[in-house]
Structures are given as C-alpha cells and as structure tokens.
Amino acid sequence: MMGKTFPTPATTSNTTAAVKKSPPTATATATTAGKTAAQRKKIHEAKAATIVSPTLPNTPVSPVAPLTPLSIAAPRTPVKREADDDDNEDLCVVSSSNHCGPDTTVARPMMQLSAAPAEMGVPGELTLTLQIPPSQGSPFGHLNPEARFYMQYFEDRVARDFVLFDRVSDNPYRHLMPAAAHHPALLNGILAVAARHHSNLTNTSVAKHLPYKGLSFAHLSQDLQRLGTKGILTEPTLAVVMLFIFFETLDGGLNTWKIHLRGARRLIQECLALDSLPENTSAMLRIFMNHVTLVDIIGRTLAFSATSQPSVFDQDIPEFLAVLREGEAHNFLGCPAELLETIHAVTLLKPRARTHPPSDACDFLSTARALLARIDSFSAATYVAARTDIDAADSPALSHLVHAYRCAARVYAVETLFPLVTTRDAIAPYHAELRRHIAALQDRSLFLKGAVWPVFVAGTGAHSTEERAWTRTQLGRLWEVLPQGNIKNAGIVLEDIWERGDAGGERGWTLLEKGGRDWLFV
Questions:
Q1: How far is C-alpha 135 from the geometric centre of its chain's CA atoms?
Q2: Which residues have CB under 8 Å from 484's CB, separation 6+?
Q3: How far apart are CA 200 and CA 3, in angstroms?
Q4: Contact 225, 93 (CB under 8 A)
Q5: Distance CA 209, CA 92 (A)
Q6: Tens digit of pLDDT for each residue in 146-195?
Q7: How far is the first Cα of the chain from the last one, in angstroms, to the nearest whole number?
C-alpha cells in the first residue's frame, strides 16, 4: 500500500557522500569547541545539512556530576480530572541492566557552561532555572565517538525540526543541550531521538536508538522517584518527556505517544491549577509546557480509542490561552493560539455530539455554532500582521499556513460536531481552500514542518483520483523536511480509508473513528 502513497525519497548526493565520512575525531571536536561564539553562529547558519554515519565503538564513559535544580516549588492544588483507565501506563521504572550497549550518557561539547544559573542566548527570554556546575574544559570530553556524532547531529539537524523558526540563539532544544552533561535522562533522550532520526533519513538500522531510549527511561524514572510529585518541575525533565513524544512521531505516531503525554500532563498539572503560573517559571519551561499543550490539542483530534481522558488544560483554568500565546514564537506548528483553543473546545464538545440527539440539544447547538463562527471570523491576515517576531519575507508563507489551519479546523469541527448531517458537498469548499493554501507553500519550505495535520485533514476529503494524487505528493513533500514515520503512516491510513470509503460510501472521518486508534500527526 505504501507504494501507492508515495515513494521513499531517494538518497541525495549530499547524503550519499556524507555517509561515507567518518565521525569527527577528538582533535576536530576540540577545534570546534575552541571557536568563538560568533564563528560557531556563522558556521551554523551557513552549513549544509550533511549526514555522517557513525562508527559504533563500545567505549564506556565515566559518570557525570549531578545537576541541582532551582525548580518551581508549586503548592499542591487539586485538579479536576476524569478517571483514566490507562493511569498505570505512566512512565515506568526501566532497569538499565535490561538494555544492551554502553551506558552512553554524555554528549559532545556544544557550548561552554557557566557556574551560575544562565541566561543562555536571548537576554530576558530563555533563562534556565538550573545550577550548572563549572567544568574544566569541555564537560563532554568523555563521550565516545558514536555519542559525539549523534549529539552533533541533534544540534545541527534534528533540533530545527522542533520549532518552526530555527533561530540560532533561542531554539529551546538546542539551548538546553549544555545541561545534558549533568542530566543523564535528557542526554540519553537526545541521543535516542538523534539515532532514530538519522536511521529514518538514511534508511538504515533502527536498533541503535534502543540503549539510549532505555537508559533515558531509567534515569527519568529515578529522577521522578527521587523528586516525588510535589510540584517540582525543571526544563530538562519536561524536555525529556517532549523528546519521548517527538520520538514517537519518528517511530510512527500510533498509540504509545499518549503514555508520554500523560506523564507530561501530570508533571505540569499542579502548576496549571494555580490562579497564575509562579513568577519564577522560566521562559524556557513555559515553551516546553506550550509544546506539551500543542501535542495534547492536536493529538486529541485523532485519538479515537477513548474520548474522556484528562486534559492538560481545563476550560476553567485561565492560563490556558495565555500559555499558548506566550509560546507562540516557539510554536512548532505555526497554528495560532486562538485556533488551537477553538480546536480544543471542539474536542471537549465532541462527546456531547455522540448522543442522538444531545441531551442538551439547544445548548449544544448554540456552543457548536459559536465555535464555527469563531473559526470563520478568524483573520489570518490580521494575525500575521501582528507577528512582530518574524521577517517580512516569511509573512506570505506563514499566512498560507495559518489559512490552512483555519480551513482544517473548520473541517474538523463540522466532521466532529455534526457527523450525521455533514455532506461531502457541504465541506468540499473548505477542502478546496485547504488544498490551495498548502500547495502555495514552496518545496522544502520551513513552513511545511507545521503542515502535517492540515495535510492529513485535507486527505480525509480527497475523493477524486486527482485529489488523492495531490495528497500523496504533499506527503512526499513533508517527508523531505521531516523524516518521520508518522508521515508514512498517514499515507497508509489515508489509503485505507479511501479504499473502504469507495467500497462502502462512508466519509473518511467516520472511518477513522471506527478504527479506534490514536494517531499523532504533527
């Protein structure tokens, strides 16, 4: 079936040439570490996306120094939540002895670490609430060649996938890398994601990530046991969970991402239950909270195994929209906070739409119509004009992406809230507009990184041969910028619902719900 969807991209000449190279030597690493910040920035901005194939020596490494958190100490506050049948699927303790391979818990030197809580990059923005011990020379000098390669690969190639605009100075995932020298869970999480990303891009063995992933789980479980559930939350801890979620998109995006999301919910639940976030919540931590929220909102739209799981944000928590908007400059989707809030409200209303008729029909119809009106009245032009953090040259492409999200949100709302009365003809204009805006994004545009969900939504409304061919082309374009397994799975799912829809006459969204699976297409 994948042959019908889109071919696996051929290995480019750059990739082929780079695979033959050896990993960086210790001398080369020392030379890189000795460059000035200006030189490193210039090199980072100018470098090509080359790929180096690592060798795999089993070189043991020495233990790292512990990291002292100056974390949020939020008081315990009850949070309204419904019963969760999958509570026992939270982050579990994994013994490192159950995993083969070296205990590779360190990374290559990216930046020099300071001895004080650092404002790492953007003045007044990305502050880190951690005490980082001073180091003599590089804190990553005891890395083996494989880990050095993957850490450099994460910095150079992977980190940019986790934000829409990859600004050298304030990418939160790249910015947090110095702390990894003292946080084994984060270190191994980075290595696991980098190894999986590299294997996807080069179509090589996927087994290299396994030791890193197992060790990251084990160290995170130990951290959580040591800290307990007392409102303690640090940037590395939440970043590790987000890396697990990103790993699931690389691996396929089916079902297991919810386990990591559930763990993230619990880590931030107490903070969000407060009337306002603690003043000492760092900007970087808020960004990671924002990213958890993005996954929660978009993930729920395609989660069909259950509809009553607890949400990161309850409607009664006033910080909901504020946190989304605060992290908008680092939003990896490009979907405006107002549309995300509306999508979330549609998802919360969905269970009431499944009773026929709804027990409170008048109130349901009033709320549903208000949500549709909110989507229809949203102005992409006004939103883009108000974004002072982007270059003028990026405004047209961002406008197309925002328009695509508005159309996709409209399709999702109608299909979700009015499944019995929605016809193909009624939503066809929204699908046509959605396809037009996605097609306007140039090949390899950075904005394609945020278009996975809109492309999938567009595919659910593809009925003609031409529309389905267009969808396959868009999935191929997405793969060129995001080598994620969930993009291939999106193609498989769409091919399946097209085939079943042709045979039985049902629409794509109805068939998705009958499938009873939980997909993460971001």
A1: 32
A2: 200, 249, 250, 253, 452
A3: 17
A4: yes
A5: 19
A6: 998 999 999 999 999 999 998 877 788 998 888 898 899 999 999 999 99
A7: 22
**Cα–Cα distances in angstroms (integers) from residue 316 to residues 22, 273, 274, 276, 324, in the given order:** 55, 9, 11, 12, 15
| 366 burial via Cβ count (<10 Å: 0-12, 13-18, 19+) | exposed
Determine which helix (DSSP H) or strand (DSSP E) holds 397, and give its type and residue range. helix 395-417
**DSSP state at residue 519:** B
Q: Could you say which DSSP state residue 330 is in?
A: G
- Dist. CA 99–CA 270, nearest whole Å: 33
Bridge partners of 518, per DSSP, are 303
- Max distance between CA atoms of the chain, in angstroms, equals 72
Comma-separated ranges of CATH 1.25.40 domains in the chain: 333-522
**What's the mean pLDDT in 67-92?**
32
Whole-structure pTM value: 0.76
DSSP E strand boundaries for 158-263: 232-233
Q: How many CB atoms lie within 10 A of CB 26?
A: 11
Distance CA(92)–CA(457), nearest Å, equals 34
Q: Is 476 left (phi over 0), alpha (psi -120 to 50) or beta?
A: alpha
Please enumerate in sequence order all residues whose Cβ is within 8 A of that of 399, keeping only pairs 6 or more positions apart, or say none: 380, 381, 384
Q: Is the pLDDT of residue 10 over 50?
A: no
* Cα torsion angle, 93, 96, 98, 104, sign: positive
CA dihedral for 441, 446, 448, 453, sign (positive or negative) = negative
Q: Which residues contact 131 (CB under 8 A, 6 or more apart)?
A: 67, 68, 69, 70, 115, 116, 117
Helical packing angle, 395-417 and 337-353, nearest 10°: 10
Interatomic CA distance for residues 106 and 451, integer angstroms: 34
**Contact assessment for residue 151 and residue 143, using Cβ atoms and an 8 Å cutoff:** yes
Single-letter amino acid code for the residue at 396: P
Classify 86 as helix, strand or coil.
Answer: coil
Say how far apart CA 124 and CA 128 lie, in whole Å: 11
CA–CA dist 450, 401 (Å, integer): 8
333-522 to CATH, choices 1.10.238, 1.20.120, 1.25.40, 2.60.40: 1.25.40
